[in-house]
Amino acid sequence: MASKLRAGVIGCGSISSNHVGGYINCGRYDVVALADLNESAMDEMDARFKIKTKHYTDARQMLEKENLDVVSVCTWHTGHATWTITAAAYKPKAIICEKPMADTLGRAEQMLIACQRNKVKLVIGHQRRFLPAYTLAKDLIAQGAIGKVQQITSYGWQGMPNFSSHQTDMYRYLLSDEECDWVMGNVERKTDMFERGTRIEDCAIGTFRFRGGTQALLLSDVTDIVYQGALIYGSEGMINMTTNNLQLLNKDTGGSWQLHEPDGKFFKVKERGDRFEWEEGGAAQADELADWIEGKVDTHRGRGENGYKALEMIHGVYESARMHEKVILPVRTKVNPLDIMVESGHLVPERPGHYDIRAFLLRGERMTKDDEQVSEG
Ligand SMILES: NC(=O)c1ccc[n+]([C@@H]2O[C@H](COP(=O)([O-])OP(=O)(O)OC[C@H]3O[C@@H](n4cnc5c(N)ncnc54)[C@H](O)[C@@H]3O)[C@@H](O)[C@H]2O)c1
Predict the structure, then answer these.
(1) Is the C-alpha dihedral spanning 285, 286, 291, 292 positive or negative?
(2) Which of 55, 202, 267, 279 has the highest local Cβ count within 10 Å?
(3) Residue 299: domain span
């Protein structure tokens, strides 16, 4: 039995419990150290999981002293590249960085380069790839259970980078990582809205064309319907997928919907309910990473290159709105096209006034992220 991997976490807010829980629940890691600007965040983590970790208010000190095998990067989006590149320089075996991979494609590319240069395995936290309903849908599609997939529809909210980077990643996962050829879409942005320090739109629609001919439609902040999952229309059937189950309709189901609620490797849907997707996703993501580190598998389904493509499709929608064109991938603009639109005066907020829909996450006296402190993420 391989010895346990030493894990440390940078940024101990809400999603980091998914990482710590995942490391603990899969049984292959010791969480030895935490880094956060706020002591209280680290204290809460220790109390929640009944662990005793070393605390650092300077993440570089943790990287310097702890000889970590695996580092989690769980700061806000703008900190993902900073901390992944910094952590990579200390040569851990692997890094799990949260989604969206970065705030710009240029920074995401630097993350891939830094990890390659230092021989560090990079995973982006699109943990829904590990949900058994998602994997069953992927397998059914690959087996031809609904014929040729013609259309995938999904619904997002609170800006595309946050919620819908999971959905662009989901499209590719469902299609066995088929490549997206082009993106077309538009955004509305009347107010100066940000999400975790990243500029977002009021609403957006994106269409995505995949190499095999499948089309995906993303409706973000434009309907009352919002969920992680998809309606998948094939030439010979349909799948209605959520994070906990799927319904299949094809000739074998006699024209009625057939419910499938597969359990995970670590948890059962019925027992965990709403917590299932977080607990199973976190544990299975960490477990596959341990397999990758130990050479039991050749790759990880959440590898950095897949995270890059999920972000690229989102930025493809912004680029389509900016350029008024169908954007053929790869996206060649490496800064955030929404930022360029606003900063160049192309898309001026009609109702000015910066606000962040996740300001409630900030602790202490802070009400905004200080953009001068790049490393704060
Ligand atoms: N995979 C998912 O489904 C999922 C779900 C929620 C959030 N996320 C992602 O996780 C990231 C974090 O979101 P959150 O909701 O946990 O935010 P949060 O505000 O709850 O937590 C962020 C933490 O990072 C800390 N931090 C900031 N700068 C730091 C620094 N320089 N060094 C150490 N710590 C620092 C903050 O003090 C805070 O405790 C976001 O990018 C978000 O998109 C992913």
Answers:
(1) positive
(2) 267
(3) 5-128+280-303
Asked if residue 85 belongs to a domain, the reply is yes
Q: Has residue 43 been placed in a domain? A: yes
Q: How far is the centre of ligand 1, averaged over its atoms, from the C-alpha of 248 (Å)? A: 36
pTM above 0.70, yes or no: yes
Q: For residue 319, give the nearest of 303, 339, 291 by alpha carbon.
A: 339
Mean pLDDT of 167-173: 98
CA of 38 to the centre of ligand 1 (A): 12
Q: How many domains is the chain built from?
A: 1
pLDDT digit string, tens, across residues 223-282: 999 999 999 999 999 999 999 999 999 999 998 999 999 999 999 999 999 999 999 999
- Are 106 and 335 in contact, with CB atoms under 8 Å apart? yes
State pLDDT tens for residues 142-152: 999 999 999 99
Alpha carbon nearest to ligand 1 atom 6, residue: 15
Helix (H, G, I), strand (E, B) or coil at 144: coil
